[in-house]
Amino acid sequence: MATGAKDSKESLKNFAWEGKDKTGKVVRGEMRASGPAVIQTTLRRQGILVTKIKKRSARGGGKITDKDITLFTRQLATMMKAGVPLLQSFDIVGKGSSNAAVTKLLMDIKTEVETGSSLAQAFRKYPLYFDALFCNLVQAGEQAGILESLLDRLATYKEKIQAIKSKIKGALFYPISVIVVMIIVVAVIMIFVIPQFKSVFSSFGADLPAPTMVVITLSDFFVGYWYIVFGGLGGGIYGLLFAYKRSRPMQIAVDRLSLKLPVFGDVITKSTIARWTRTLSTMFAAGVPLVEALDSVGGASGNYVYSSATKQIQGEVSTGTSLTVAMQNSNVFPSMVLQMVAIGEESGQLDSMLSKVADFFEAEVDDAVEALASLMEPMIMAVLGVVIGGLVVALYLPIFKLGSVVG
């Protein structure tokens, strides 16, 4: 019976309908049902004469990003703290969104709640957008009767995590964009500029300097096999990204390597610890038991090393070990974090101390990103100077040599 009910519920589809009420006024809406006949019957009982029913596609227009979910969480929290009923809040936020996919998602969740599901259960049906941490906090808020407070805390958490991710992406955008521009410039020089110089040099009737010969040889290769060069470069990048998404061992290797990178490793480590402590602080403050909270913390850290360490910590804590000792045994947290956690456990203010640690490391990430931007700029200029300047010097060496001979 339970299986049949579940299958029946999963077969429901979204339909947009249009009709006229008893006064002849045109009304429109959406309904989740197994078919058009059910909608006809339901609306007829409400005194609505249906004129049009159209099945809605599984996807709305546009893509739903983490930023969209963060904005929705903040808006929903604000609405509920202002006393707006839950279903009305979904209507206001959904219809106010410029992204059709977000509107459809929120209307689907609203329909789930209208048909008897709790808000947490409705969110759990869309794991692509609402992770375990999000659903667990909403469930804790519903059970304790403090949903608006938990949504506010959840919105603050997502905003802070979003800010860290944006800073990391911003720090990486500049060097990557400069490297791409450099590759394009070098390719243009190799394919179009150097062949012109080669035809001029061939009329000299003298041996060319070694650097010039190397550059001309590379240019000949680019001109003859440019499709292999660009195809190999594009295919290699796509292959690495594809393998990273599909291969768990590669993800683990990249996560471990990223923490050991000379310059970026420190920033990644600090941002990971900030996410880890912020997540645990938010979960613990919401009243989620420590062992259960650690389930969501590992995944939220975004790094295999810390996710694996969290599983180890969770196992030790479940057997009676203190959080401080378990974290110390994992060997991935600096002494300052361990000391703050120890103080939090002893004083009974673990969530507050974890929040302070998160604030500290978020500030450290800000400083590190600024320092990284200041450091990367002269390094990139130096690389550009060596590459582009080297090509120019190699091209002009024969001209300098000819000038000295003529002189």
Model description:
- This protein is mainly α and 407 residues long.
- It has 16 helices and three strands.
- A hairpin with a 5-residue loop joins strand 1 and strand 2.
- The radius of gyration is 30 Å and the shape is flat.
Question: How many whole angstroms does the radius of gyration measure?
Answer: 30 Å
Structural class estimated from helices and strands: mainly alpha
Percentage of residues assigned to helices: over 70%
Q: Report the oligomer.
A: single chain
- The largest beta-sheet arranges its strands as 2-1-3
How much of the sequence is in beta strands? 5-15%
Shape: flat
Average of the residue pLDDT scores = 82
Low-confidence stretches: 1-10
Task: State the total count of DSSP E strands.
Answer: 3
Report the order of strands and helices: HEEHEHHHHHHHHHHHHHH
Separate helix tally: 16
Précis, in short:
76% of the residues lie in helices and 6% in strands.
Question: Could you outline the blueprint of secondary structure elements for this entry?
Answer:
Elements: H1 2-10, E1 13-20, E2 26-33, H2 36-45, E3 49-55, H3 66-81, H4 86-96, H5 100-114, H6 119-124, H7 132-144, H8 147-201, H9 210-246, H10 248-258, H11 264-285, H12 290-301, H13 304-318, H14 323-330, H15 335-347, H16 350-406
Helix pairs in contact: 3-4, 3-8, 4-5, 7-8, 8-9, 8-11, 8-16, 9-10, 9-16, 11-12, 11-16, 12-13, 13-14, 14-15, 15-16
